[in-house]
Amino acid sequence: MTSQPVDMDWTWCRFGALGVDNLYDALALRCRVFILEQGPYLDPDGVDRESAHLLGRDGAGALQAYLRVVDPGVKYAEPSIGRVITSPETRGTGLGRVLMAEGLIRCVQVWPGRAVRISAQSHLARFYGDFGFARVGPDYLEDNIPHCEMLRPA
Prior knowledge:
This protein is of the alpha+beta class and 154 residues long. The chain is 25% helix and 31% strand. The chain has one domain: Aminopeptidase (3-Layer(aba) Sandwich). It is built from three helices and eight strands, in the order E-H-E-E-E-H-E-H-E-E-E. Strands 1, 2, 3, 4, 5, 6, 7 and 8 form an eight-stranded mixed β-sheet that branches. A hairpin with a 2-residue loop joins strand 7 (140-142) and strand 8 (145-152). The longest helix has 17 residues, at 19-35. It is globular, with a radius of gyration of 15 Å.
């Protein structure tokens, strides 16, 4: 697929408002990519409850994109975007860019005037750089994958 996905239905909510279907779908997609593709690690890390969640469903209702925004003060002083994921079927369509743009819009709405910090897979630093993020430290291993901390100023 090379065309931009259309007709995405975005849901933005706190953990308690996810409901069992959204929670199941989000964890299933996260497991499919983060665990089956990238290797074993503990995905439910205790931070989901202190986060907002953004889910993108296609016209048929299938979850195709997801990210979470961890509240300021939980992982970092700033709000932190993480668990950024698109389904394997939508890769190369631009959906990842749409997802990040949607997530940043919500960050600005909920935390106006705040910087946003991420722990990015190092090979995706250029992708995140396109959204105004800059490296703020050396590479490090997280779950045996090189990562780097990045900050997007307010």
